[in-house]
Write a structure and sequence with these properties.
The structure is a single chain. It is built from 10 helices and 8 strands. By secondary structure, it is an alpha/beta fold. The chain has one domain: P-loop containing nucleotide triphosphate hydrolases (Rossmann fold, 3-Layer(aba) Sandwich). The strands form 2 sheets. It has a 5-stranded parallel sheet with strand order 2-6-1-7-8. The longest helix has 17 residues. The chain is globular. It starts with a strand and ends with a helix. The relative contact order is 0.21.
Length: 227
């Protein structure tokens, strides 16, 4: 079996950053499942599809022309890496992700990412649905205010407009949708390492996840993760 580390959590909890750092340290593949839903939402909006119509979204998901190359995300050959990181793309992703058929259509694509030497997967249902047998599952969380501030700084650094109070409300609304949706709701997987990142630095969170990886995978990762 290919070793898998599943990292889940709400928007802005730091799971994407940590997953990428862990994958880099281990030399493993990295799956940003949120990017898939963001690309799907963007593709649907460009085709003027109804984001509340699961039938047309499932058809699009089954043939989604997306490719991941290094740090770039391509849609129909176009680099959309920055476009899918906007708040609008995040809201679209949240809307399309509520449909069970859409999630089922993307499930196989995500599982095929588990290739040697290993995979670090981040999302909202990596440890509960996509990789329920992952030996190491983590759940990162933080207060809505802290997550909104992180997002605010990211957007400002990219030269994009942002309003902090609006971001807080959008994050709260997205949390509610993600936790209450019928298909693969956001929840802590059984046996997951739960970390509240509100007052933790990236380095502190990374150290705790790597410590857990050493305990779970032993010599398989110890040399690469030793301080």
């Amino acid at each position: 079996m290919v070793p898998v580390i599943a990292i889940d959590g709400p928007s802005g909890s730091g799971k994407g950053t940590i997953a990428a750092l862990v994958a880099e340290r281990l030399g493993w593949h990295c799956l940003d499942s949120g990017a898939l839903y963001r690309v799907l939402g963007l593709a649907a909006e460009r085709r003027r599809l109804d984001l509340d119509d699961p039938l047309v979204l499932v058809e699009l998901a089954a043939t989604l022309p997306v490719a991941f190359e290094a740090q770039r995300v391509l849609l129909d050959g176009e680099d959309v890496t920055n476009l899918i990181r906007t708040e609008a793309a995040g809201l679209a992703a949240s809307r399309v992700a509520v449909h069970r058929g859409v999630r089922d259509a993307l499930l196989g694509w995500q599982r095929r990412m588990a290739r040697p030497p290993g995979l670090v997967a981040d999302g909202r249902d990596m440890g509960t649905v996509v990789f329920p047998d992952a030996p190491l599952k983590c759940f990162l969380d933080a207060s809505p205010e802290a997550r909104a501030m992180r997002r605010y700084k990211q957007l400002k650094e990219k030269g994009l407009d942002a309003n902090l109070p609006t971001l807080v409300e959008e994050i709260r609304a997205r949390d509610q949708r993600d936790r209450e949706r019928a298909a693969a709701p956001l929840r802590v997987a059984d046996g997951a390492l739960v970390l509240d990142t509100t007052a933790l630095s990236i380095t502190q969170v990374l150290d705790q996840v790597l410590d857990a990886a050493r305990r779970v995978f032993g010599d398989l990762v110890r040399q690469r993760t030793s301080p």
